[in-house]
Amino acid sequence: MAINNSCVVTYSPAYTIVPTYECFNRCSYCNFRTEPGKSPWMNLSDAESIFKQLQSEKVCEILILSGEVHPHSPKRQAWFELIYDLCELAFSMGFLPHTNAGPLSFAEMQNLKHVNVSMGLMLEQLTPILLNSVHRHAPSKLPEVRLQQLQWAGELQIPFTTGLLLGIGETANDWWETLAAISQFHQRYCHIQEVILQPHSPGNQQSFNAPPFNPHQLPEVIAKAREILPADITIQIPPNLVKDDQWLLACIEAGARDLGGIVPKDEVNPDYPHLQQQVLREILKSAGWELIERLPVYPQFDGWLSKELQSLVRWWRNSLNLVSRSENNDFP
Fold first, then answer.
1. Cα separation of 90 and 296, whole Å?
2. Is the pTM for the entire model greater than 0.85?
3. DSSP string spanning 240-263?
4. How far apart, in Å, are the Cα atoms of 318 and each of 101, 280, 302, 311, 315?
5. Residue 72: is it exposed, middle or buried by C-beta count within 10 angstroms (0-12/13-18/19+)?
6. How far apart are CA 290 and CA 286, in angstroms?
7. Cα separation of 83 and 97, whole Å?
8. Is 98 helix (H, G, I), strand (E, B) or coil?
């Protein structure tokens, strides 16, 4: 069936695996982390059991989402090996891994490239003023550390997802500067698949006492982001953080074309459950949009993958009968 790509919105059928919730950062808006040593790490046996159950479901992406272990911690090597082994296991069982585990060394990224079809890291905001507030106790949120990841991903030809967290104490000019930095890296390396615009949504665990990001502002931010970012970067919004149907449709009209990984539980925002895919389909259909599945790697990046990863990606493309996302660059 032919699909008008200008009317397509995509999502990834995904499942999140958390190697550990412990994190040496203490971002005051976080609803994910636990103190180091306070929660058990995922083990491969439990992960294998989960993957076996998922094989009977239409899940293509395994998102490896981890809290951060300090680069100089004696546990760092074991942490990295666990992440690698989880990716390798997911791949061996027919899934497409995507890792987001905080800043990594060049060597760590290089190794994970062999077992991931894509990777990601949120820039959040590049303004250093947040180091005096929400990031005061978050050493890995230094802007130069986050930007280094975008450069290394480009040098290593890793398809990459990044994004902004909106409403954590930054200004509108900070949004445009962060988006401009992403644009500059992409113009050099052509490796950014998606930019996520994530509105701050208060949860039960955080200490940051601030209201949610103004929902009526999000379409305006998306429209401006669409002007700043190259056309081949897709703008993603989390639909569980966009609670009103008309607000969601306004975000799509403004230029957002992807809803990210639709997972059973949003680990980063556990107080905000996802709508079922069929419900989202009906909301979008009412305004003339079609919701379709995508893989965690876009077709234009397939050539950057190993032959083994390419083979599995081809199988998934054929299995889901996917339209070419690389043609979906029209933003009316």
1. 14
2. yes
3. GG--SHHHHHHHHHHT--EEEEE-
4. 30, 24, 14, 11, 5
5. exposed
6. 9
7. 10
8. strand
Place of tokens 């009977």: 56
Amino acid identity, position 15: Y
Task: Give every CB contact of residue 47 below 8 A, 6+ residues apart in sequence.
Answer: 17, 86, 89, 90
Q: Which residue has the tokens 């390419």?
A: 310
> And the tokens for 123?
């820039």
Residue 310 main-chain phi, psi, to 5 deg: -60, -40
Dihedral pair phi/psi, residue 221, rounded to 5°? -65, -40
Instruction: Give, in order, the Cα–Cα distances in Å from 78 to each of 69, 112, 125.
Output: 10, 14, 30
Which residues, in sequence order, are CB contacts of 172 under 8 Å at separation 6+? none
Instruction: Please say whether the beta carbons of 225 and 179 come within 8 A.
Output: yes
**Per-position pLDDT tens, the chain of length 332:** 233 467 999 999 999 999 999 999 999 999 999 999 898 999 999 999 999 999 999 899 999 999 999 999 999 999 999 999 999 999 999 999 999 999 999 999 999 999 999 999 999 999 999 999 999 999 999 999 999 999 999 999 999 999 999 999 999 999 999 999 999 999 999 999 999 999 999 999 999 999 999 878 999 999 999 999 999 999 999 999 998 999 999 999 999 999 999 999 999 999 999 988 899 999 999 999 999 999 999 999 999 999 999 999 999 999 887 643 333 333 22
* Interatomic CA distance for residues 72 and 65, integer angstroms: 20
Query: Would you tell me how many other CB atoms lie within 10 Å of the CB of residue 191?
Result: 21
Report d(CA 70, CA 158) in Å as an integer. 23
Residue type, 80: F
Enter the tokens of residue 151: 């450069």
Nearest to 109 by CA among 151, 79, 152, 146: 152
Per the listing, tokens 């992440």 go with 83
DSSP alpha helix (H) spans, the chain: 44-54, 76-92, 106-112, 143-155, 172-189, 218-228, 245-254, 277-285, 307-320
HSE, CB side, 13 Å, CA atoms: give it for residue 29.
Answer: 22
